[in-house]
Amino acid sequence: MTVNTIIHGNCIEELKKIPDNAADLIFADPPYNMQLKTVLYRPNNSKVDGVKDYWDKFNSFAEYDVFCTAWLSECRRILKETGSMWVIGSYHNIFRVGTIMLNLGFWILNNVTWYKLNPMPNFLGTRFTNATETLLWCSKSEKSKKYTFNHHIMKRYNGGKQMTSVWRIGLCVGGERIKGTDGKKAHSTQKPEELLKRVILSTTNKDDLILDPFFGTGTTGAVAKKLGRNFIGIERDSSYIRIAQQRIDSIVDLWDEAQWVEAKQW
Amino acid sequence: MTVNTIIHGNCIEELKKIPDNAADLIFADPPYNMQLKTVLYRPNNSKVDGVKDYWDKFNSFAEYDVFCTAWLSECRRILKETGSMWVIGSYHNIFRVGTIMLNLGFWILNNVTWYKLNPMPNFLGTRFTNATETLLWCSKSEKSKKYTFNHHIMKRYNGGKQMTSVWRIGLCVGGERIKGTDGKKAHSTQKPEELLKRVILSTTNKDDLILDPFFGTGTTGAVAKKLGRNFIGIERDSSYIRIAQQRIDSIVDLWDEAQWVEAKQW
DNA sequence: TATAAAGGTGAATCCGCAC
DNA sequence: AGTGCGGATTCACCTTTAT
């Protein structure tokens, strides 16, 4: 039976309704708490369209920590002993997330670096170009030795060499980036499908159940469906859900398993 | 006057003797892997055996947090308002270090990824090859806007394009790796000079004072001297100090400033 | 139609000083 | 503290418009 569900509601409340040891993989793309305070202009005086969404507002580190402790605790309860937990973040939040995960008993297997092909430059020359985001790949505990890791698939996918913890992937732009009727990006932080493809290919098997507590416009669900995995997504914003549902429903051709592992040039 | 000092003693105790606002740059390479390698004791002094449950782990993490809070607090006091703080770590410790730094009021400017050219593979095929370490570059506080950043030097050093937060650098091997009389490596975690060259070139000026509270075999001091910067190192192991002192004393030819910024191929 | 030039944009904690 | 203004500052990729 195929599970293919998007739940509309508050992340923590909906997580509480999910039974223990239910998920093979949890992928979480939580708010980063970006703390943007000023307007940034490019050298040509155009304005940068930064993340100013309501869902990224927190009053303090303490408030953000309480929020993350709550949803991460539920995720750990839901995760199978053999399962994998992935969380993506930037330097704004990933250190707090990582510390909380360690305190909750998660066991870090890799900190994967998304090394962006085309990051936005630092326009004023005040810092290095921030060219990465970080993904934490964790098992449920130190004792969870039987987590799924498809080493040979990833090795072949990487052209015959063991895949490293650095993934060189472009931003989600062009045709893949979902636009609204106004032509503007539908979600300010849509992730590239290539990122989810690697996460799902490496740490799940076919028919596994994937949970995404911050579903957004459904990249996790779209890739899960294409790869023949089940998923449950939780999202509180109904406008994102409409987009995600349409996106996923429109997928008819699943990816050919024989092609998943073809070597790619990056 | 040139400051070129190696202090033998306990890191935290020696840091306390250094006055406020003294250092232009602090580079710290603290112990990484405190967890689970040491014997744990319960509050009643009984020894914790084998099983590492949630509370055991938390105790271990707590000790590491106390240690880091102590030396990082001293470093922040010592750092000039215009100064830079750098800390290097791996996924074992950098999340805790990052959280503590944020809680102390440090302001993250970049999380620089040291992307290793020649990482050790994962022999068992149980994880992705761990190919990175992380450097946190921070100013003293959010309000510290006048930190030194030699944007143009780094841009030229990077072949004319803005340098990004990903640094592709090899491990410290071959002739650069200091060996003992037994032919074995003198220090288990000696860092490549190229790493320190970028840190020092980007965030200090000539004659600035650099502090390294975990001096080891003196890579920070060696590069500081070659680049015409002053330094103070703290190290508790006298055998490391002997090696570092000899290493630094043997440096006679400083690097030619005109050549620092020549574009390199990486 | 093909090629070239111009314009838009991405999870961004992006200035300094005078008044 | 807020405002205003002078001045220094950007990379890769995709889309649209012009030749």
Describe the structure using short key phrases.
homodimer; 266 residues; Rossmann fold; 8 strands; 20% strand; globular; DNA-binding
Which helices and strands, and how do they pair?
2 copies of one chain form a homodimer.
Chain A: E1 4-8, H1 11-16, E2 23-28, H2 61-78, E3 79-89, H3 94-104, E4 107-116, E5 132-139, H4 151-157, E6 166-169, H5 193-203, E7 209-212, H6 219-226, E8 230-235, H7 238-249, H8 257-260
Parallel strand pairs in A: 1-8, 2-3, 2-7, 4-6, 7-8
Antiparallel strand pairs in A: 3-5, 4-5
Helix pairs in contact in A: 2-3, 5-6
The first copy, chain A, binds a DNA duplex (19 and 19 nucleotides) through loops.
How does this structure look, described?
The structure is a homodimer of 266-residue chains. Helix content of chain A is 29%, strand content 20%. Chain A has 266 residues and is an alpha/beta fold. Chain A has a domain at 23-36 and 54-207: 3-Layer(aba) Sandwich (Rossmann fold). In chain A, helix 2 crosses helix 3 (94-104). Chain A starts with a strand and ends in a 6-residue tail after the last helix. Chains A and B meet through helix 3, strand 4, strand 5 and helix 4 of A and helix 2, helix 3, strand 6, strand 7 and helix 4 of B. The structure holds a DNA duplex (19 and 19 nucleotides).
